[in-house]
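Session log. Operator J.P. requested a structure for one protein chain; no other inputs attached. Running the standard single-chain path with token output.
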Amino acid sequence: MVLFPFVTTSVFVGREKSIKSLSEAMAGEKKIFLTTQKDPEVLKPTIQDIFQVGTEAKITQLLRLPDGTVKALVEGNRRGKIVKLSDEQGFLTVDFIPVEENPMPDTVSQAALRTVLEAFEHYSSLSGAVSKNFLRIWKFWKPTRHGMPMPSLLNYRSKWRTSRRCWNVRILKSGFSSA
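Structure written below.
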């Protein structure tokens, strides 16, 4: 699963460095960066082992489970592209640059939104996987946020097995780190 901006989901973390990253984030601004690792069998991923684009997220809840793993409830904030991966003090940190949305003219945006919404309503009526209440409130969302939760509601299988990785965050603005 991939976390999208404006989507809230649970993340289960088992690797020690990722757990330490979550703990460090909770002690600070509660921000982490989530991306997907290309091969979950790689125990010490380098920057080449992960997808460069991911999502900055805010941790809203952290729960330590009896088996040693940690369950984090996270809310996606914005997309970002990793420019540097660092191993600092036993946990991983990324520097990233925000990936900005390309705005469309209002008429094009509204037409695209209407087309996607109609297709999604048709999908949800066939699958029964989406609440009717969700579809009712959907129409009041902003166009840039409108499609974000949609992929997380689709029930599909991938031929690739993936795992998510999380890191502490440093946001780069104009080439300078803000953390």
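Operator note: The two ends are 28 Å apart (CA to CA).
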